[in-house]
Amino acid sequence: MKIGTDGILLGAWAEVKHSKLLLDIGTGTGVIALMQAQKNKETTIDALEIDINACIDAKFNFEKSPWKNRITLHQCSLEKFNKKIKYDTIISNPPFYESSLVANTQSRTVARHTSTLHYNHIIEFCKSSLSSSGNLSLILPVTQGNKCIIKAQKSGLYLKRKCNVFSKKSKLQHRLLLEFSFKNQTPEENNLIIENEKRHDYTDHYKELTKDFYIIFD
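The structure assignment produced for this chain is given below.
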């Protein structure tokens, strides 16, 4: 699987300053887990992935990184993951193609479709596995993201931060970055535009958010 903009956005945007224990659900090739390890040298990370081929890539990437001693890879589904600890941060870039055509390989089907993982499953998991002062960070398309906000509130998780993501100023909003906690509060909200009107002409805001992870922004 290629490293996508969604993963980079979530990995850069997530707040892990005070996170000692972190869980990355659906780690894929491991990029989000690696970004969190880079951001906080005190964070210990469990990276969960169901697909064997993605696990092979993630294992390789973790072992080649400077943070290999702080990241543990688990090949299993969220349903079967039963580590009895409370996480300070739970983070996920979950699949979201709820009604599109099935991909032409099993690996891409698992990665893209909600048949194996849904934000509802993540929210339910957080009810017992997120610490009382912890946070859940997700990236979703707008429609699913708004549904997720409602589902989370019904489950006792409240929106803490929201970022409305636009690929370009002239385009409709296409993603929501969401952070939840158990504290009912007025959420912080802002907007992010990824590119100016020319392809690969990135906005200053996007460069500032991701500069620690892209060598092209050095």
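Interim note for the steering committee: The first strand starts at residue 21 and ends at 25. The first helix runs from residue 5 to 13.
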